[in-house]
Amino acid sequence: MKKIFFTIIVTIICMIQIQAQTTDLQLIEKTVMHYFDGMINHNSESIEKAFHPSATMKWNGEKFMEVNALNAISDYINSNDAVKMKASIVAINIVGDAANAHLKLEYETFYFVDFMHLMKIEGEWKIISKTYTTVKKDF
Predict the structure, then answer these.
(1) Number of domains the chain is built from
(2) Which of 31, 37, 50, 58 has the lowest tally of Cβ within 10 angstroms?
């Protein structure tokens, strides 16, 4: 009887954890979709939904750069026209209230590879850090 009870409890705990992981995955995907919408449609409101206000963005240009992600991306999309692109999620990893997402934003001659770090803050998944690189397409 104890074995059956123990097995039932373990099964319930595992099911709850799996359900929580699925829910978190769906919520992270929703946050990433806000980011994609902001980038594809140049929608600054969607960018604000995706990023924490203190999120950073880092990359190598002519030199290593670090800026406030929300401000930099909002400034970019508000001062440039939208261009055709495809966006995709390569991978998402979740551990507790922390996650990372590997994303690809593909343009005609190059693509960005974004590595987003996310945290679950007050029940919402927010991007807290973006690191990216640019890869030229070989023709």
Answers:
(1) 1
(2) 58
Q: What is the pLDDT along the chain (139 residues), one digit of tens a residue?
A: 666 655 555 555 555 555 555 699 999 999 999 999 999 999 999 999 999 999 999 999 899 999 999 999 999 999 988 889 999 999 999 999 999 999 999 999 999 999 999 999 999 999 999 999 999 998 6
What range does the domain containing 16 cover?
2-136
DSSP H stretches of helix in the chain: 2-41, 44-50, 69-79
Decide: 27 and 40 in contact? Cβ < 8 Å: no
* Partners of residue 112 on adjacent β-strands: 105, 134
Look at the chain and count its residues: 139
The DSSP secondary-structure symbol of 37 reads H
Output the domain CATH number for residue 87. Answer: 3.10.450.50
Tokens standing for residue 106:
């593909």
